[in-house]
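The protein record filed below.
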Amino acid sequence: MRCNWCWTKAAFSGINHPDILCLRQAALNLQEIIIQPVQPGEQKHFQSLMVTHHYLGALPKIGHTLWYVASYRNEWLALLSFSAAAWKCAARDQWIGWSYRYQYDRLHLIANNSRFLILPGHHYPNLASRVLALCERRIAQDWQERFGYPLLLLETFVDPQYFHGTIYRAANWLYVGDTRGFRRTRQGSRQGYSSTPQHPKRVFLRPLTAHAQTQLSQPTLNPFYCHGAPKIMLTAEQMRSLPQFFADIPDPRRKQGQRHSLATILAIATGAILCGMEGYKAISGWAQDLGPKARERFACRRRNGVRQVPSCTTFRETLIRVDPDCLDRALQGWNAQFAEEDEGLAIDGKTMCNAIDEEGRQVHIMDVVGHESGLCHTQKKSLPCR
């Protein structure tokens, strides 16, 4: 029989003796664990714990991101971060079975479990699967309330150099394959992807509804899951063709100090807008995320062996000076070439909130959008009849 001093010494020294684990589990009632979003005043502490204890460090809260904390009697046990889904993942895309035509328009229905940290001293049996289960129950509603649309699927990537994904298997996540090993990189303020594969990661998925796979892969998305303007994923051929249509547009810039061709700037801006970006910062961010192959297709200039993309300032200064009529004709020409891919069209109307004529009437715009490509083929402005 061990004395109380032996039990206490073993517990505080971190010895994972089976008897000690049983005592820890008995001392923790899994039913009393609660999951809550991290409050603004707790975010600094959340990030400091991630930096200290997670092997990948912390992630900045950029875009659509939710942070959760699992607590037991007001004591933090685990931290989780959910963010936007990966743009491309062959194993995930193959499991869903969607076409590239629909993929980018539906990525907002997937969230990535980008961080999961059990805090030191709290590695209790069944804690991880319990925390994941509690997150799955509430994240769809939380995402709807915060960002205006629900979720259908969760994804995560596990590095087999460190983990085997045991906790995700225990929580009924599906292992669907491995990544190809390409990873995001950062050089100063520039982002992109590695040119050569590194270490593949295991891909796990967790459907939040029974019909998640069907909803994501079907030709026509349920309007309940639609969000924002239609988006498309540009093909390699579409990327290469875009600069050609802008080659004849007069360049409004001075010759001195030009680093990027006008055709490349307009082509990248057009591609970003087609993929759902809004505003100069979003266009610039989309451009920074382009991989080496995509930058080559857009004919980006090469410097020190690396293809560079225009800055946010370059996009803004160019787009406000270019001739809008010439730009419109170029876009119509490109649209006419690829419009034949659409097998179905959707007609949609919107009211322009700030477009009011002299009589106080608001302008209405009717759009014809292709189902397959997500392109707007034509647009007509009209005034309501009295």
About this structure: Residues 1-23 have pLDDT under 50 and may be disordered.
